[in-house]
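Per reviewer request, we include the raw input and output of the structure prediction for the construct analysed in the revised manuscript.
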Amino acid sequence: MKTLIRKWGNSAGAIIPAAVLEQAGMKLGDKVDIEAVEGGILLRAAKPVYTLDELLARSPEGSFELDDEDREWLNTKPVGKEGE
């Protein structure tokens, strides 16, 4: 398939046909990484970056247990710069 690169504000954009988007396993609203490669431009689905809190929130209930040693460590006040 072919498409045109068009002016979009101070940037440029190209229409991605729905069939191509579907074949790539992408949908509207997905984040992408973009880079210049020899002779072209490469768009790739961006890999999500999660915080520890987000990962823990996504963990299934009961997927980990805290023992007494873990709880003691979690409840210990910082003694150095780790609290900054």
